[in-house]
Structure formats: C-alpha cells, structure tokens
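User: I'm writing a tutorial on reading structure tokens. Could you give me a worked example: one chain, its sequence, then its tokens, then a sentence or two explaining what the tokens reveal?
Assistant: Sure. Here is the example chain.
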Amino acid sequence: MSAHATAPRPVASAVPAQHALIYIMVMMSAADGDMTDNELGVIGDLVRHLPVFRHFELDTLPDVARECTSHLNHPDGMRHTLHVIKASLPERLHETGYAIACDIAAADAGVSPEERRLLELLRLELEIDHLHASAIEWGARARYLVA
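And here are its predicted structure tokens:
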C-alpha cells in the first residue's frame, strides 16, 4: 500500500434501523462523559412517541443501549459504531438520525465541545449537507429552550 493510500474501511454489520437510532442517542448522551437525567428522559420520550419507533418494544431499550456500549468498546469504538449506524440506517432515515442526535445534545440547554464533535462526525457519516444540518440544529435548539 502506498504512503498516500488509505486503509480500507472496515465492514460494519448492520443492526435494525431502530437500534441504530438508539445507538445515536446513547452515543450523544455519553459523548461528554455524563449521561444526564434530562438526556435519558428525552431518549425515553423519543422512543415512546416518535413514529419511527412505533413498533419498538420499549422494554428492550436497556438491552439495545448495552449493545451500543459493546460496539463502543471495540477498538476505535466510536468510528466502528458510526459505521454500524450508517450500515443500518436507510438513507431516508439519515436526517431523522441527525435530528434525534440534536435533540439529545439540546436536552441539557447547552452543547458541549464533545457533543459538537460527535454531531460533526455523525453529519459526515450520514452525509447530511450543511444547510439541512443547520436547519435541523436550529429546530432542536428551538424545541428545547426553557421559558
């Protein structure tokens, strides 16, 4: 392999799309090292109320969160998990994934540098263009403002 060639991207095995969306939320919640009650509450609310989770068994949520943690514990765990997410989400759900990531980031009324970096990596992995990403981010900020 030449000095300018990049290593081949590891092949990530797919999980159900709903699991991939939960992985996004778990990753965002854990990004700054502190999974807050607000973030965990938002995860539960989103899984209970968003149409994309309509047929998801809520009692399996802790198991799916553990699956995500298992993926994150692989060597280069964050990139590995992002590849699993990309392999698992149909393109029509890429913006949904980014939107729920923004919801988790906004849940604590402030976005940490670690959360910003993860949002950037997720945006790149899911190929969300800057204009759409900005609109999605603005909507999350608007929804989670405190009066």
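What the tokens reveal: Residues 1-10 have pLDDT under 50 and may be disordered. Helices lie at 17-30, 37-49, 61-72, 77-88, 94-106, 113-125, 130-143.
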